[in-house]
Amino acid sequence: MDAKTPVAVLVLTGPVRPGEVAGWCARVREALAGVTGGVVVCDVGGLGPPGLAAVDLLARLELTARRAGGRIRLRDASPALVALLGLVGLRFQTEGQVEEREPPLGVEEAVETGDPAG
């Protein structure tokens, strides 16, 4: 299984209720059953304002996926959600975001006149 090709896409909607977490985890387990290194994409655009309930859900989904031999990847994650996840020490692979060390397409470094060629 190609790590870039998802085995399933889950569309998460909010607000997140604690009683729903077990059902989402079961869906992740089911999607990754019999697949080694699979990726489940979680579309989080509909979660609403980020909060600790969303962080808890995503952490549990990632743990479930890892136990099943896979991972989750976030789609349509707001900058606020990514920041909150980072604040609590959780790093997720996200779709559509540029690598930290690479400039976005169309952005070039400026060269100061008078700088020696390096």
Shape assignment: globular
Q: Can you count the beta strands?
A: 4
SSE order, one letter for each helix or strand: EHEHEHE
CATH topology: Transcription Regulator spoIIAA
Largest beta sheet: strand ordering:
1-2-3-4
Low-confidence stretches: none
Coarse structural class? alpha/beta
CATH class, named Alpha Beta
Structural Rg? 18 Å
Mean of pLDDT:
85
Domain unit count:
1
Proportion in helices: 25-40%
CATH architecture: 2-Layer Sandwich
CATH homologous superfamily assignment: STAS domain
| Share in β-strands | 15-25%
Domain MlaB-like STAS: 10-90
Pfam families: STAS_2 (PF13466)
InterPro entries: MlaB-like_STAS, STAS_dom_sf
Region (Disordered): 98-118
Overview of the molecule:
- The chain has 118 residues and is of the alpha/beta class.
- It has one domain: Transcription Regulator spoIIAA, CATH 3.30.750.
- It is 31% helix and 19% strand.
- It has a 4-stranded parallel beta sheet, covered by helices on one side.
- Helix 3 links the parallel strand 3 and strand 4.
- Helix 1 runs parallel beside helix 2.
- It is globular and about 60 Å long.
- The mean pLDDT is 85.
Topology summary:
Layout (H helix, E strand, L loop, with lengths): L5 E8 L7 H12 L6 E8 L5 H16 L3 E5 L3 H9 L5 E2 L24
Parallel strand pairs: 1-2, 2-3, 3-4
Any key phrases for this structure?
Transcription Regulator spoIIAA, 118 residues, alpha/beta, 19% strand, 4-stranded parallel β-sheet
